């Protein structure tokens, strides 16, 4: 895995047609760290991630990859430095796990896509890291949700980029598989030094796994930094319209959000 590249948004605005979603947003992604983006539905999290990955053109502003505009960088150069796993990817019918993961090697191959021993090694390493090596010959269609998500992550790992962007990688997974996926991404960050940026909905898991937490609302960044500093009771109420108490997670000692509703609050008012 190469050393992480730098990634920065500068006064970035994004939208769809006449609808503005992200407005004048500036953010430096910490290299070699795990950054998690959180916020209420439709606040611009996924749109921002797509903008960082060059999947969505900027209305104004720029995204800089190693100090150079990502939109003026050749596609192959971008693919060698930055990988993305979008939300709800769809595999071709009948494709095997090994074939899908091998697609992560396309940016590394020449014009005629000549396969090399290095490609073989990268695919095997990605399958091993994600615990999917024994699934290599199976059809992706046959896999459970958790297995399928690990296979998609294996494809992203096989690309061997210094930056990995993931849009809600734990969506539709049960809690045990959510933790499994987040542990895997943390292993990747710690063992390879990769920069990981992901959108998550679950605040407590976001706080547990993030080195750097970005909180968004209405297309803007409300707060960014260490989860223990950023996620206060007032920020949660202002952003998510939810009263809560913030207490230490008994396992990780990171912030844990305890919602306060109208019922079963034990006398909290």
TrEMBL record:
Keyword annotations of the record: ATP-binding, Cell membrane, Ion transport, Iron, Iron transport, Membrane, Nucleotide-binding, Transport
Keyword Cell membrane: yes
Location in the cell: Cell membrane
InterPro entries, sorted: AAA+_ATPase, ABC_transporter-like_ATP-bd, ABC_transporter-like_CS, P-loop_NTPase, Siderophore_ABC-ATPase
Entry superkingdom: Bacteria
GO CC terms in record: plasma membrane
Gene3D superfamilies: P-loop containing nucleotide triphosphate hydrolases
Entry annotated with the keyword Membrane: yes
Main localization, broad class: membrane
ABC transporter domain span: 7-243
One Pfam family linked to the record: ABC_tran
A GO MF term: ATP hydrolysis activity
Membrane topology of the entry: Peripheral membrane protein
Example of a GO biological process term: iron ion transport
Transmembrane segments: none
Protein's UniProt name: Cobalamin/Fe3+-siderophore ABC transporter ATP-binding protein
Species name: Winogradskya consettensis
Lineage: Bacteria, Bacillati, Actinomycetota, Actinomycetes, Micromonosporales
């Amino acid at each position: 895995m190469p050393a992480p590249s730098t990634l920065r948004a500068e006064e970035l605005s994004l939208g769809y047609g006449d609808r503005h979603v992200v407005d004048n947003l500036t953010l430096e992604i910490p290299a070699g760290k795990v950054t998690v983006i959180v916020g209420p539905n439709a606040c611009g999290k996924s749109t921002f991630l797509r903008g960082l990955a060059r999947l969505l053109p900027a209305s104004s502003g720029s995204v800089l990859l190693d100090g150079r505009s990502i939109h003026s960088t050749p596609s192959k150069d971008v693919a060698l430095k930055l990988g993305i796993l979008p939300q709800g990817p769809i595999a071709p019918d009948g494709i095997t796990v090994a074939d899908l993961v091998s697609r992560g090697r396309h940016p590394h191959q020449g014009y005629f896509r000549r396969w090399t021993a290095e490609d073989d090694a990268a695919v095997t390493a990605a399958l091993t890291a994600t615990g999917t090596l024994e699934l290599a010959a199976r059809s992706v269609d046959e896999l459970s949700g958790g297995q399928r998500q690990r296979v998609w992550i294996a494809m992203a790992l096989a690309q061997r980029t210094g930056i990995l962007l993931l849009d809600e990688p734990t969506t539709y997974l049960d809690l045990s598989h959510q933790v499994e996926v987040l542990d895997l991404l943390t292993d990747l960050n710690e063992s390879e030094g990769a920069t990981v940026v992901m959108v998550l909905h679950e605040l407590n898991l976001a706080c547990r796994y993030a080195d750097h937490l970005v909180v968004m609302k209405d297309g803007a960044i409300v707060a960014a930094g260490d989860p223990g500093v950023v996620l206060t009771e007032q920020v949660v109420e202002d952003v998510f319209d939810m009263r809560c108490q913030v207490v230490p997670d008994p396992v990780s000692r990171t912030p844990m959000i305890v919602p306060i509703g109208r019922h079963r609050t034990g006398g909290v008012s």
